[in-house]
Every structure is written in C-alpha cells, then in structure tokens.
Amino acid sequence: xxxxxxxxxxxGMLETLAKLPFIIKDAWELGKxxxxxxxxxxxxxxxxxxxxxxxxxxxxxxxxxxxxVVRGYGIPPTKFVVTSSYSGxxxxxxxxxxxxxxxxxxxxxxxxxxxxxxxxxxSNIPLIKIPHGYQPRVALPYLFFPLLRVLAQEYDKEIPKLxxxxxxxxxxxxxxxxxxxxxxxxxxIYLSGKTPIIYGSGLYAPVAHRFKTQLNENSKxxxxxxxxxxxxxxxxxxWSGEEHGDRYLPILLRYKGEHPRVTKRIELTKSLLxxxxxxxxxxxxxxxxxxxxxxxxxxxxxVSVYLALMRGFDPTPVDIxxxxxxxxxxx
Length: 331
What we know:
- Helix content is 46%, strand content 15%.
- The chain is α/β, with parallel strands linked by helices.
- The protein folds into 2 domains: 19-154, Glucose-6-phosphate isomerase like protein, domain 1 (Rossmann fold, 3-Layer(aba) Sandwich), CATH 3.40.50.10490; 174-310, Rossmann fold (3-Layer(aba) Sandwich).
- α4 (91-102) links the parallel β3 and β4 (106-111).
- α2 packs across α6 and α3 (49-60) packs antiparallel against α9 (205-217).
- The relative contact order is 0.15.
- The mean pLDDT is 95.
C-alpha cells in the first residue's frame, strides 16, 4: 500500500469531506424558503463546481425539467435563468446575469457573497445565500440541494436517508479504515503512472465530469472524460489508432439503471479496445438514484484527495487559477 502523508492536507480537505452528510442536510434546508414559480425549461449559468451542480440537476431531473447548463458569458433565449457562483465574483456568470436582466428574464441567484449577492440584493432578485468559507468544488451540495428543493420538494423524505447512507459510507472511506476502497483506487491510478480517461453514462456522465475536474484541482494531474454512447462515435476510433496502454488508463463509472443498449456498448467496447490493457471499473452503491449519484461524488472525491497526498500535494490550493484570475482582473 502506498503511504499517504496526511500532514500535506494543511487545509483539512479530508476533514471537510467527512462533513458531507451534514452539509447535505444544511444545503437542503436552505432551499426551504425559496418559493418560486419555475418553468419546465430553464437555464443554469455557472463555471467550474457551480456548473457541475447544474449538470447533476439536469440529468437527475431530466424527466421533469429541461435544464440547459451554460458555461460562458452569454445565455440562450429563455424565460428563466439561475445564476450560480459560489464566490459571487465569477466573471462569466456576472456577465450572464446582466444579460438576463437586460432580456427581462426571471432570475434566481445562488451565491455565498460577492458581486452577484450585491447585484441580486440591489435589484430585488430572488437569492439563495449559501455559506462561505469553502472551496467552490467542496461546496457542491450547496449548489445542488437548495435548487433541488425548489424544483422537486417531493425528495424531502429521502434526504435524511441519503445523509445516513453517506455517513455510513464515510466509515469505509476514512483514512483509518481497514478496508478503504477509494484509497485502493487512488493507489491503482498512482502506480499505473498513466493519465486517467474517465467514462460515464446517463446519471453518471456528470459524475465522470466531476471526477475529471477533481483529479485536475485536487490531485494536480491531467485527466479527461467522455460519455457513452457518445464515445462510440469518436473516442473509440482514437483508441484503435495505436497502442495507448502505456499512456492512458480507462476508468469506467457504472451504475444500476444504465440503459441496456449502453450496457451492451460498454461490454463490446471493453472487448474491442481494452482487452489487453489495464482498465478500471467502478460500480455505484445505493438503493435510489440520489444515493447512487452522491455515493459516486463522495467516493471519487476521496480518491482525488488520496491521490493528491500520494503525489505529494496539498489538495486544496489552486494557485495557478488564482494567478490567472488576478491577471485577468488587470486586463
């Protein structure tokens, strides 16, 4: 077993991950007072972790709402826009906020502070204010559950069961656990010395995206992601062009409820492309879709943090992003 140096976790990322059940409960309560008439078609604007929250909602509520997630400075034609920025100072989201106002869209702002909070308050725009002090990627539940409560209050009875389920899972994810699946997966990735390419489908497509970004920000390594069945129309050819076993590590995220044709595609792809090279499959846990969704988030967040510690990094700082934002502010 590769040793991890917990002293590198100077900002306490592992400690924060252990609080996930309590953060979920708190985040759900924040959506209680926001009573809005939201149409079936809406746009969520955000970047980074704020956008991932929108992606998770879009796939989780796909049978009830048509949610388009926008990463960028503009918005498509729409009547309702959710502007989501944990810091409240995301340049792209603030620009989209002003565009939505100019277009007379109804707006809901979700933020912890910053310019977005000020603009929403001064314009008397509905606002869900979430706690500050977290890294945006750690604050994911605050960017998901308040809006979920606004859109689908029927999940109220499931939230306590979800929190209990995630709490029990944490017992196996803790650094002191005897059998620690995320630690073992992090070790597999670390010892492979390869760049992870992550694939998901359906409910787990945004989970694959989330894992990719967590490997980028927490583990400080390159990673890529794609989804089934889309990858069968492009990535598949790339894998067949030459031997990639010494450079890339395919990681398949699976869940109970995959479309049967997707399951067939995955099995055929495995036999055609990865029969002779190392490949990792991760199967979800949980009885409900919400439990499976957040089991994947929780499990893979731990993987990314353990991998960071194996690689000798503090998982929290993202210094290069800070420098980029400072440089942009001067332009």
